[in-house]
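Researcher: Sequence recovery benchmark, item below. Answer with residues only.
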């Protein structure tokens, strides 16, 4: 009996020791924070080994099973979802852990008392979670980055420099007082610090001491200049002087741009001289351009260009011929002055643009102009030859210049043709004389008639609408037959006489054209003619490349050094800069 009792005690003692060895680690793990990864790994390993044993005990001891289930939930939560909480002491840890365990257990029991079972893939997920455990959360990353890149002190130093320089401006000229010297010294010190530091963490203790020294110096300056009204007056005076200087520079820049636009580039002058010299070395029969039999055939496509610029005419002609589907049916009528006539002829003799008919005429060839034609367009407020040149006003004499033609397309020499223009001869003119593109956007005129015409005159005010939209010169289809029929020659003569007696419009041919062709103009689609490439108009690439004709209106012509580079390339692609004349005259892209 005693032996049996002794064996039972040994058995109980053995089981107690086994139970103690099993429960002691559980109690230990319940009191250790989950932030220790090595202990968490050990707990997981222990959990895997004891899973089967827990299942066996769960049937007879539900409370122990619930307790073990709570351990499982704790292990899963603490490994996969670190809260990032800074624990103050051990008791707070236990309280939070116990509350979360109780919530988990009660939730499981409420769902029917089912316990979480260890899934086959859970170990892989836990290992993956462990790899990202040391990775900081997005909030922690953002906060740490913001702390590391703080520049509050840096910005404060920059403000100190601005204030110090402002105080220096208020000091007397050539002042060498102690305060002025101190301000200059502090400015140099702070600028030296800012040259070495990009964020607050780069600042050393000596840097912060210099910052404090600047505060002391600024405080002294504030006491030295207490009169705020005097400082404000001085600031206003300085602002006024600065604005005057800016205005003067803008006026000077504008004057230089317009002066450059009126001058003739040295390279173009050289080109004209060389061409003229070679022209007079030719025999008279070799000075004639080919295809003269096509000059006045009415069934061909006739173009007119009035210009004294050889290079500009070359681009206008080359671009038109290149983009045409029937270049052999094109006839160009170029009218120039007597000085540039030989050069113009020689250029097209030595550089023929395909099978195109070209006629070159001089102003001296026409005998129907008034005696004072060369001076009648002079304007007292304008000395710019672009406005006062007789070639610019030659467009009002088209029916007399081409008496045998019924339709002609007038191109300015500062245009580039990008599409075939044959369809313009099929446009229904609706009994009008002029076909042009209006300078309007969304039915609102960006250039109203009153901006070109003096509507203080009663005759002008009663005849024309001051709010009328202005149309553009540069690419215009003229019905010469209708021009003659409606007697616009007499209207032009009356307007010219009226304009000579008093100033009724601005200089140039555009204002007079608005009056002459008022109610005689049919509006063309905007895509036929796009303007604004000779100035900063903000014209987009898509609109430019969609246009049939692009116009370099403005002062910054493409053959000048002040041309706008992003627009100039549409012009230069129609020139061969390998031409010997260009190389001799230093004309380059």
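Model:
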């Amino acid at each position: 009996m005693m032996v049996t009792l002794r064996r039972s005690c040994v058995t109980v003692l053995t089981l107690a020791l086994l139970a103690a060895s099993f429960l002691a680690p559980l109690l230990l793990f319940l009191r250790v924070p989950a932030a220790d990864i090595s202990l968490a790994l050990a707990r997981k390993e222990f959990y895997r080994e004891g899973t089967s044993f827990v299942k066996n005990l769960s049937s007879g001891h539900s409370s122990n099973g619930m307790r073990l289930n709570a351990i499982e939930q704790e292990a899963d939560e603490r490994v996969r979802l670190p809260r990032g909480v800074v624990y103050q002491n051990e008791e707070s840890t236990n309280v939070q852990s116990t509350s979360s365990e109780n919530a988990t257990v009660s939730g499981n029991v409420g769902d029917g008392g089912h316990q979480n079972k260890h899934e086959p893939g859970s170990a892989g997920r836990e290992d993956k979670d462990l790899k990202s455990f040391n990775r900081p959360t997005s909030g922690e990353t953002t906060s740490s980055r913001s702390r590391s890149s703080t520049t509050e002190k840096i910005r404060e130093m920059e403000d100190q420099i601005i204030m110090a320089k402002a105080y220096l401006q208020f000091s007397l000229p050539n002042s060498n007082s102690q305060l002025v010297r101190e301000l200059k010294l502090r400015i140099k010190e702070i600028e030296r610090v800012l040259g070495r530091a990009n964020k607050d963490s780069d600042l050393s203790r000596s840097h912060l001491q210099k910052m404090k020294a600047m505060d002391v110096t600024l405080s002294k300056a504030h006491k030295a200049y207490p009169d705020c009204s005097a400082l404000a007056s001085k600031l206003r005076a300085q602002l006024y002087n600065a604005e005057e200087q800016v205005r003067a520079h803008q006026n000077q820049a504008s004057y230089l741009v317009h002066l450059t636009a009126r001058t003739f580039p040295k390279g173009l002058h050289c080109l004209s001289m060389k061409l003229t010299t070679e022209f007079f070395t030719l025999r008279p029969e070799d000075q004639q351009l080919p295809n003269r039999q096509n000059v006045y055939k009415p069934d061909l496509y006739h173009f007119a260009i009035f210009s004294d610029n050889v290079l500009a005419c070359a681009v206008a002609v080359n671009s038109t011929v290149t983009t045409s589907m029937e270049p052999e049916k094109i006839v160009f009528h170029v009218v120039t002055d007597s000085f540039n006539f030989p050069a113009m002829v020689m250029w097209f003799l030595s550089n023929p643009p395909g099978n195109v008919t070209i006629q070159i005429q001089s102003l001296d060839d026409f005998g129907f102009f008034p005696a004072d034609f060369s001076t009648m367009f002079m304007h007292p407020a304008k000395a710019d030859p672009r406005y006062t040149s007789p070639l610019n006003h030659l467009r009002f004499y088209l029916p007399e210049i081409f008496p045998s033609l019924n339709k002609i397309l007038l191109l300015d020499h500062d245009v580039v043709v990008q599409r075939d223009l044959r369809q313009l001869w099929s446009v229904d003119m609706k009994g009008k004389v002029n076909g042009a593109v209006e300078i309007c956007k969304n039915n609102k005129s960006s250039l109203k008639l009153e901006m070109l015409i003096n509507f203080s005159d009663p005759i002008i005010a009663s005849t024309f609408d001051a709010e009328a939209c202005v149309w553009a010169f540069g690419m215009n289809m003229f019905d010469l037959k209708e021009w003659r029929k409606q007697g616009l020659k007499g209207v032009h003569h009356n307007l010219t006489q009226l304009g000579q007696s008093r100033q009724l419009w601005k200089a140039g041919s555009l204002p007079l054209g608005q009056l002459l062709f008022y109610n005689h103009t049919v509006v063309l689609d905007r895509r036929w003619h796009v303007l604004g490439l000779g100035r900063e108009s903000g014209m987009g690439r898509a609109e430019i490349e969609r246009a049939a004709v692009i116009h370099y209106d403005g002062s910054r012509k493409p053959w000048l050094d002040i041309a706008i580079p992003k627009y100039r390339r549409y012009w230069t692609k129609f020139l061969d800069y390998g031409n010997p004349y260009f190389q001799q005259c230093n004309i380059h892209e």
